[in-house]
Every structure is written in structure tokens, then in C-alpha cells.
Amino acid sequence: MEHVNLVHNIPFFSIFIAMFSGIITPLVKNGKIAHKIHMIMVLIVMIMSAILLMNVVKNGESFTFMMGHFPAPWGNELRAGPLEALMALTFSVVMFLTVTGGIEFIYHDVVPEKQSFYFIMMNAIFGGMLSLIYTNDIFTAYVFIEIITIASCALIMAKGTAQAMVGTTHYLVISLLGSGLVLLGICILYSITGHLLFPQIKESVMQLFQSGEYSFPLLVVTGFMFIGIAIKSALFPFHSMLPGAYQSAVPTSSGILSGLVLKSYIILGIKLIYSVFSVDVMLNLKILDILFVFGLAGMVMGSVYAMRETRMKRMLAYSSVAQIGYIYMGIGMASRIGMVAACFHILAHAVTKSMLFLCCGSMVETCGNKEQIYYLRGAGLRNPLAGIGFTVGALSMVGVPLFVGFISKLYFATASIYAPGKMAAVLIVLGISMILNALYFLPSVIAIWTPVKKEGEEAKKAVISPAFGVCIVLFILINIGMGIFYRPFISIIEMGISLLQ
Amino acid sequence: MNEKKTFWQHLQAWVNGEEAILHADEYIKKREQPHQKRWIKKPNMQRIKENKGLYWFLCVLVSLVFITIMLLVVSHLPTFGQPINPTNNEVMERYLEKGIEETGAINFVAGMILDYRAFDTFGESNVLFLAVISVLILLKRDKKNINAREDRETEEDERFDRSDHKSILKIGAKYLSPVVILYGIYVVLNGHLSPGGGFSGGSIIGAGLILYAAANGHEAMRRFFTFKTFTLISVGCLLTYCGCKSYSFFTGANHVGYEIPKGIPGNILSSGFILPLNICVGLIVACTMYGFYALFTKGDM
């Protein structure tokens, strides 16, 4: 028996423990126990990811993990490095805080006998996201994209209202379009390269690119796969499923879907850019430029849609569209530092948007389940913690210094210097988009802190559960902490991206 | 009306959220302007009907563009079945040449999906499981998705079902379903020896169960297959799969040894974990098929 490196087993353990807890949850009829199983699972994954992160950063390494007895071109493989470990850690922290903080919404909105099913989906979606982060095999990625698609639809429809059904149907149709394009891309890619694992495909793609063979299928493949991923992660022209779905879902689901699920597809895209198609090929095929343009369009249009919106959850959904635009802009700049900014923005948005959805859900509940911003006036005074959380989130999204959103915007602006020919566009659109962000976030912040003179009835204070309070406070602390001590995150991301190449 | 005041009113209204609409309406009436676009869009059936032609045109256009791209790609792809194709590389060579020796399965497909690339198949069986659970969340009767009228309708349906003799179907099912299920079991058990395996055998078993349920009604089915059975079988199979594969991934990746004996290729008890995994996948698929049928017809199992 040789020496076993347990740290290298962590990606495999994380994925399997998530899937395992998903599998055993149907045996539990009680939602509370299902929640405990879920919580313990996420905690274990969180601790393991932290250990993995410390180890890979200390050794400055990335490694592949053979799934089974067969080495690379024959069997499945996982791959982990600093970037993957950091993403897994952030995802588990956000998942833990969102579900723990939003547990009351789940108990309130989902029928008791279906709560355990809801947690099966939560576990599965977490396992799927971990697999997308860690995978080194393009078909495994597809299988887990399917799992995430099914689970996210189930999370939206779990509320069981007619509105939720409409939202789910819309989400399902557009998601399936994305999955279909990705699958078509994988099929064509396999028939021109003959491989399914990232390093081997990269080798063949480089050969094909240099020899000029199959150049048209290669172009179509990259197009299909990245359009598919863009659809799944709701890049601007494909964003239409978000508002309806997020508005009608349980706030916890909306937080998870917007904060994490969209990001997991983008992380897969980043891995594809670096370890499959390579930046040179992508630049030559102009795919990165297309992503860049749509990212810019998304940044402006998402904010414009959000400004027109009078319902808070839909406004947050459109704001997600704008933030996804930022990430794609960073990817499209095709420089190392642009990618670092994009990755940091993934973290920043994950931390912020989940908190915003939770706070919004709580305030909506305080104001008698009315979603219009008009009825939410004074919600901050009646439910101070949610109000403070919303304010912090809004300021962070606008890009006020001290909050995490500021750092990513700073890095986007810095990155534009290294992107020849794109600098003016980036800076102008960044400025416009930040003003637009302020224009729709600040009025809603002012609205929730405006005292309303109600005729007759006295405004009653909201009852918030201790779990919600603790989670929101932690979210705020993480937000400010990441906004001040951002250096380690940036250096870890830089290390991760250089190891990915 | 004072222009500046209106602007401030507007700004204030906009900050307050929906107020803007109320004020905007008054403002519009006073100024006798044409009706502005409403902020909250409602689906306008009239407009959708008017634009039918445009939608039709766009659908055809998008489909045509897509079809053209796909046909072009296909014409550029390597010709099917040529020995020099990129897919005929060392990967396929090893699967075919060493497959029997390394996995113990004569059916190469079984060896590929359940041994070389077992992680993907684990994902796939989870997809099936999650699909049933999603349908359960959607359709299982609860106080939100069922009302008294629908309840009465189902009851009437059941009464009608009971009075209907369906003698041809019943007799047919009586003789056919055991054979179908038996054949399914055969396909599952011989998955590593002959074409077939968990997915195909499982769907045959599922078809047999559906035939039986369609002929004899859910009451008869419930004698041996309830929701509890479904949960126990699915969870048990997935757990077995998860356990077996965790073991083999862990031992394989860390070079620990303790491999499962492969047995003599060709025997029914051979090829390590492939036989139990095939049985697990088969049972999951069968339960999924029947589960879909039961949920979509009755909303319950």
C-alpha cells in the first residue's frame, strides 16, 4: 500500500458526500431533519475545501485526481487547484449562509410533506456545482449540467403557486436550449478530436488549429459551447427567464440560483477557455470578442431593465443580468488580469446577491407579501436587520469603497489598460453602468428607509429568527471583510489562473 | 401646472416605486396626452395574435439558419466509419483490445459505462432519480395543487375504471407482463455478457410494470409497489452504486490495491462490480419509468 494523499481525495469526497446526502434524504420525511443533513454536509464540504485551499496555496500546485483505476484518456478525472478550491470554499460558505438564513422561507412556502424533496434538490445542486468546478472531463460536465438544470427547476417550482409554474416553464425551456447547444458542441468536438478529457482535447485542438483541418466545425463547436454556457448563465440577450423565475421562487432558491448556479456555468466556461480551447484559439475565432460585446450590452441593458422595474425581486433579477455582463466583459478582455477581475466578481456577486435576495424576501414578508417597492417603504425601519443587509448589498453592487463590489470594479478598470483596443469601451460602459446601478439601487434603499404615515394601523415590528440574523450579520461581515482584505483572494485567483493554463 | 414641480413629483414618485403610475395617470389625463406605455407589462393576447405572422417568419428563419449551419458542419465532419477518423485513437483501441482483460465484461459498452467512465453513469442515474423527485414535487397531491373538483373527478375516474372490465387488456396483460418483466430481468442480468444492460433492461421491466398497472389499476399495483417501495428501491440502489463506486474510485485513485476479482469473462458471476451496478441501474430505471406513469396518471404512487 503506497502513501495515500488524503488532501488529493478532497474533490472526490466533496462531490460524493453531496450526492450521498441527496440520495439518503428521501428516507427522511421531516423537513427539519433533512435540513440538518444538508447543513452538516455543507459544513463538512466547507471545512474540506478550506483544507484543500490551504494545501494547494502552500504548495502552489494543481493536481488531477483519477476517478477509478484507469488513467487520463480512458477514465474520468477531476482537477483541483487554487482557483477551484477557492470557488468551492466560497460556494459552500454562501450555500450554508443562504440556506440557514432562509430556512424560515422554506418552512413557510414549501408544503411540509415536500420539504425533504426540496432538500434533495439542494444537495444535488450543490453536488452538481462542485462537479462543474472540479471536473476535468467534458462529458462529466454535461451530466452535471443536466443535474443542475433539473434541480434548479425543482427549486423554483417547489413553492407550488401558478406563478411559480410559469416561471419554471420559462426557465426550463431556455435552460434546455442552453444544454442542447452544449451537448451538440460536445458531440461535434468529440468527433473531430476523439477525446473527452480537457488536456487531451486541448492537444488535439491545438493540432487542428495549426493544421487548419476541420476549421469550420471547430468554429461552430466553440460557438455552440459558449453560446450554450452564455444561455445557461443568463448573458444579456438570453436573460428573459430570470425575472419570472426569481420573483416566483422561494427567496432562498432565488439566492442560490442567482448567486451560485449561474456562476458555476461561468466557472466551467473559464475552465474551457484555459484548459480546452486555449486563449489563442478563442481570440482567433473571435468568440471572446463576441462575449465581450454581449457582456457590455448586458451591463447597460440589465441596469436599464432594472430601473424600469417596480417590483423588488424582479429588479434584483435584472441586476443579476447586469452583473453577469460584468463577468463576461472581464472574460472577454482576454488578459490575465481581466480574468482575475471576472473571477473576483464571481465571488463578490455570489456573496452579495444571495444576501440581497434573503433581505428582500424578509422585507417582503414584513410588508404583507407585497413585492412592489411602493409597499416596501419603511420596511427597513420595521425590519432593521434586513434593511441594513439590503443597504450593504446595494452599496456593494453600486461599487462603494469598503464593500466587495468596489474591488471588482476597480480591477475591471485596471484590466482595461491591458486590453488593447477595448479600454475606452470598458471604461465608458463601466462608468455608465455604475451610474445606472446607483440609479436603481439607491432609490430602493431610500424607499425602504422612508418612514410612512400609515392611516390608523401602527407599523408592527418584524419577527426575525435568530438564524436569519446571524447569517445576515455574517454576510455583511464577509462583504466588508472581502472589500478591505481583498489581496489574498486576488493572489489566490492569480495563482489559480496561471496554474490552469 | 408647474413644470419643475411635476419633475420633482415624478422623481419622488419614482423613488417611492409604484406611486409613479398613479401620478403618471393623473398627469396624462390632465395634459390629454396619448396613453403612455405602462410600466408593468401584461401579456396582450390581441397583440400576440396580430404578430402571429412575424413570429412564424422568425421561427422559420431561425430554424433555417440553424439547419444550414448543422448541415454545413456535418459536411465538414470526418466520414463515418473511416479508419483514419480522429475518434479511432488510442482511447478506443484500449477499450476494445484490453476491455475484457481490464473490466471482465464481454459487452464493451457495459465495461465502458460502468467501469472506465463510471462517474458519468453515476451522474446519469442521479439524473433519473432527480427527475422523478422533481415530478413528485410538481404532481404529488397536496393542499396547494389539488382542489375539491379535481378530487371528485379522480374519484369518478376510479369508479369508472372499476366498472370497466377491459377483458382483452386484462387477459393480455396477465400473460404478457410476467414475460416482459422476466425478459427485462434477463437483459439486466446479462448486461455484461450481451447487448443490453441496466438502462435497456430497466426500461423493459418498467414497461412490464406499466402494462400491469394499466390493466389492473393502481389498487392492484399498490399491493406490492407503493411509494415506500419506490423510495426504498431507488435509495437502496443509488446507495449501493455510490458505495461500490466510492470504494473503487478511492482504491483506484490512491493505488491502494484490494481490487475486486474479475472472475472468468463469460461467466454470469464475473466482471467485478459491473453486475451489481447493472442491477442497481436497472432497478432505478424501472422505478423511474413506472413512477412517471403513476404520477402523471394519478398524481400518486
Provide a compact summary of the structure:
Chain A is mostly helical and 501 residues long. Helix content of chain A is 76%, strand content 2%. Chain A is globular.
Plain-language structure description:
Chain A is 76% helix and 2% strand. Chain A is built from 20 helices and 2 strands. In chain A, β1 (63-67) and β2 form a beta hairpin. Chain A has helices at residues 10-24, 31-59, 82-101, 103-109, 115-134, 138-157, 162-193, 198-211, 215-232, 241-248, 251-284, 287-308, 312-332, 336-366, 379-382, 384-398, 404-417, 423-448, 466-484, 487-500, and strands spanning 63-67, 76-80. Chain A has 2 domains: 1-285, no CATH class; 287-501, no CATH class. A two-stranded antiparallel ribbon of chain A has the order 1-2. Chain B has 3 domains: 1-42, no CATH class; 45-76; 107-298, no CATH class. In chain B, α5 packs across α6 (108-116) and α7 (118-139) runs antiparallel to α11. Chain B starts with a helix and ends with a helix. The chains are: A mainly alpha (501), B mainly alpha (301). The interface between A and B is large, with 75 and 71 residues.
- How far apart the termini of chain A lie comes to 33 Å
Q: Which spans of chain B of ≥5 residues are poorly predicted at pLDDT below 50?
A: 32-37
Strand content of chain B: under 5%
- Contiguous low-pLDDT stretches of chain A (5 residues minimum) are none
* Structural domains of chain B: how many: 3
In the residues of chain A, how many domains can be counted? 2
What's the total helix number of chain B? 12
Shape of chain A: globular
| Overall outline of chain B | extended
The secondary structure category of chain A is: mainly alpha
Structural class assignment of chain B: mainly alpha
Which characteristics define this entry?
A: mainly alpha, 2 domains, two-stranded antiparallel sheet, 2 strands, globular, B: 301 residues, extended
Task: Write the SSE topology.
The complex is a heterodimer of chains A (501) and B (301).
Chain A: H1 10-24, H2 31-59, E1 63-67, E2 76-80, H3 82-101, H4 103-109, H5 115-134, H6 138-157, H7 162-193, H8 198-211, H9 215-232, H10 241-248, H11 251-284, H12 287-308, H13 312-332, H14 336-366, H15 379-382, H16 384-398, H17 404-417, H18 423-448, H19 466-484, H20 487-500
Antiparallel strand pairs in A: 1-2
Helix pairs in contact in A: 1-2, 1-5, 2-3, 2-5, 3-5, 3-11, 3-14, 3-19, 3-20, 5-6, 5-11, 6-7, 6-11, 7-9, 7-10, 8-11, 9-11, 10-11, 10-13, 11-13, 11-14, 12-13, 12-18, 13-14, 13-18, 14-16, 14-17, 14-19, 14-20, 16-18, 16-19, 17-18, 17-19
Chain B: H1 3-15, H2 19-31, H3 45-50, H4 52-76, H5 90-103, H6 108-116, H7 118-139, H8 148-163, H9 167-189, H10 198-222, H11 227-254, H12 274-298
Helix pairs in contact in B: 1-2, 5-6, 6-7, 7-11, 7-12, 9-10, 10-12, 11-12
